[in-house]
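Reply to thread "Modeling small-molecule complexes from scratch"

Following up on the discussion above, here's a worked example others can learn from. I took a protein sequence and the SMILES for S-adenosylmethionine and predicted the complex. Inputs first:
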Amino acid sequence: MVRFYKKKNVASNYDEKRFTGQGGQIIKERENRIVLDLLGDIEGKKILDLGAGTCRYSIAFAEQGAEVTALDISQEMLDKGRAKAKEAGVESNIEFVKGDAMNTEYKDESFDIVTALRIFHLVDDIKALAEEMKRLTRDRVLFDFFHLWSLRIFYNKFLPMNSKLRRKRKMKKLLTRKGFYDVELRKDFFIPYGCYRFSPKPLPKFYKKLDYLARKLSPSRRASSVVYITGRKS
Ligand SMILES: C[S@@+](CC[C@H](N)C(=O)[O-])C[C@H]1O[C@@H](n2cnc3c(N)ncnc32)[C@H](O)[C@@H]1O
C-alpha cells in the first residue's frame, strides 16, 4: 500500500487524477471547506499533517496562517507538494519531512493540531496511529475515513492501494476511549468519489445535486462514504 504511493508516476499524477476535471474540482473544494470549517481559526497554530501526500491540506493550512509540518513516507509525494507550495507562495510556512506517521521522532505535545487525511484507509493498525496523534497534539486531532456502509463498498476492493472501509462507531471510539472530548463527526459524499471522478461533464454537477438531496432526505447522512472526525484532547 505504501509502496503504491512511492511509485514515481503515482506522485506525478496524484492531483491530476483526483482533483482535476469537474468531479475532481468538486471533491477538492468540498473537502477543503469541510476540513477548514472543522478546524476553525488556525492562524498561528502549529499543525502536523500526517500522510500529507502532495500537500493540498498543508498548503490550505499555510494559506490560513498556520505553521505546518507536512510529513509523508514518500519523498516523491513531498517533492510534488513542495513544488505546489512554492507556486502558492507558502513554501516557507511548511516544513517537509519524510517519515513514518506511525512512529515519529517528535516530543509529546509538539503541535497544536495533528491531522491525518486520507490515510486511515491505508494503515493496518489504526489504534497505533490514533495513539501517535494523541501523543503529538496539545489540543486537537482531525482525520477522515471511508465508511463501510456506503456505495463505496461496491468498488473499494477493486482499487490498487488495498483501501480499507471502516465502521463509524469503531472510529468514534478511537477518540472517545482515549479521553477526547467535543468529538464531532461530519459525513459527506453519499455519491462516492469514484462516481465524481470518472464521470464526464455534466454528471458530477448532477451528483452534487443528488448529494444535496440525500442530505435533505437523511439528515443523519447514514450512508455517507466519507466521514471526517475531530476531537479535543482532555
Ligand atoms: C491518499 S494519500 C493522501 C494525501 C493527502 N493527505 C490528501 O488528502 O491528499 C495518502 C498518503 O499517505 C502516505 N502514507 C501512507 N502510509 C504512511 C505512513 N505510515 N506514514 C506516512 N505517510 C504515509 C502516502 O505516501 C500518501 O502520500
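What I'd highlight from this example: The domain at 2-232 is CATH 3.40.50.150 (Rossmann fold). The chain has nine helices and seven strands. Questions welcome below.
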